[in-house]
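Justification of resources, computational component.

The compute hours requested in this renewal are based largely on the per-chain cost of generating structure records like the one below. Each record pairs the submitted sequence with a full structure-token output. That output is archived, and it is also reused by downstream analysis tasks.
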Amino acid sequence: MSYYVLIRGPLGVGKSAVSKRLAKENRAEYVSIDRILDEHALWKASHLSEFLRANEFAAERAERFLAKGTPVVFDGNFYWKAQIADLVGRLDYVYYIFTLNAPLAVCIERDRRRGPSYGREATRAVYAKSGRFDAGVGIDATQPVDRVVSAIVVHLRNAGSGIASEKAGDGPARRTQSPVTSSRNSESWPRNSRGCSSTG
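The structure output for this chain reads:
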């Protein structure tokens, strides 16, 4: 079963560590929006247009794997609802969205410990920008990476995704049309969406 997962949240929250671990443990392809921005020299002034252009490259890469039945895990800040809507509009597969949540102080400390660090002000700015709206299922990212990944896997398993069910030994999951959560707020998410409510 082909589907993809969007992992979003502020700088320093642990998106890359969680996304890479989730992809590795479940034989999915990992796609970093930041890496695409860097590879294609798209990062200029942090405008929406730059991220929409990155979506073109991300969707093209993901499609190659999804078409063969390999799930994809996207890692990005996803600052704008329009950025998410654009990406999911390009890929006609079931998808799941998870927002990693942690206090600003935790994100600042995690950023400080890594090399190179982006710095306190950058972390603060990204935190404000990425926290302007909720999307998908909220996950407490103050926990260790393995526990965050486990929490995501539980949601995927409950939603009937093949990634989690196969790992659990249940075989491929059947595609269902019921979302992870019942409310979609006022978002106009495309069809095949899973977990698009704002859940704390």
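Residues 18 and 96 are 15 Å apart (CA to CA). The chain has one domain: 3-194.
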